Amino acid sequence: MVLDRASDIVTAATTSNDALLSKLSALRAGYLVDPALRAIHTKPSLPRKDPMINRGTWFRFTYIEQMAVAFAAKYNGNCAIVSLGAGLDTLYWRLQFTAQQEKKEGKQSYFHVKHWIEIDLPSITELKAKKFDLTHGEIINMPVSEDTTIRPFQEPQVILYRPKQEHAETVPEALRVELPGYRLYAANLEMRKTWMPMVRDIVANDKGDATLPVLFLSEVCLSYLDADTTIGIIKDLPTYFNSFGIVCFEMVNPSDSFGEMMQINMAERQVVMPSFVELGFTAQYRKIFQLNGYEDSYAREAGDVYRSFWPARRREIEQLELFDEFEQWNLIMGHYACIMGWSGVTNLEEMLNSIGQDTESPDAPDK
């Protein structure tokens, strides 16, 4: 069985819980609509965080969500989405809940994909399976890979969770939605020569060619991995997939005073983030993509992207909670980045720039 190191468990549990609490706070303040998120939080009250955190959470969540939606629409659902370090994320439940409502209303265009795959550590996936009423884990033996040298006592196995065919009536409706093509795997992302072939086999055609477009998502996941693992993931994706992109939201700029404070705060909670410390610069990520033969890449600080992101919706969001601490806001947003690399698929930068444009009037751009 895939075993977690103590540092992995602490980091994964802490960051997964942080993300959950931030999204619940944003939900409470009206930034998000997410029935599944509310359903897995059994406490009667929701947490409350600073308005800047809520607004940043909205952008982080919506950027990842809308890139997934746009990618699926581009390929009319004939694609796969793979969420790395998915944690307790509810994105697929949210998208399917909306899609099923739209189908009932007779709409012809709604979100769908051929495969939706999530990967995280066993300690997280076991918790997710319980909260989301998934099947009991099925152990799958994988071919022995060279990655086993990283952890000599680790057997080449992963654990697979799937949606249940039927749910008890006590399970909230938001968690009883159909989840076509959904798989949750317990696997350590360090073991990329185990999980990458596994994903490739899922998306491969009858001839064994991985030509199906695949979008990988990392919502502040790579930042917490060893730098060698992050570089290795970026390096190996082109080896296994012909048409793919990776969309990331990661921490950057570790070497200034604010970045150093972020490191100290997380270290006090026993959370390590090696890739943030060693690779956390937009230019560095672009260089890694370039050196590994990607067709193109994109990396900009979140604050820069936010200012031109979905203008109409952004202006609505900014009215939910007003604040004037813009220096602090700019500091926070300057230490995260939207990072993307792609080969054999549509230009992801153009896709990002098109989000929300169909709802804008000709004179609406807010650059």
From TrEMBL:
Reactions mediated catalytically: [phosphatase 2A protein]-C-terminal L-leucine + S-adenosyl-L-methionine = [phosphatase 2A protein]-C-terminal L-leucine methyl ester + S-adenosyl-L-homocysteine
Residue ranges of the TM segments: none
Keywords recorded for this protein, A-Z: Methyltransferase, S-adenosyl-L-methionine, Transferase
Gene3D superfamilies listed in its UniProt record: Vaccinia Virus protein VP39 (3.40.50.150)
Entry's EC annotation: 2.1.1.233
GO biological process, alphabetically ordered: methylation
Primary role: Methylates the carboxyl group of the C-terminal leucine residue of protein phosphatase 2A catalytic subunits to form alpha-leucine ester residues.
Annotated protein name in UniProt: Leucine carboxyl methyltransferase 1
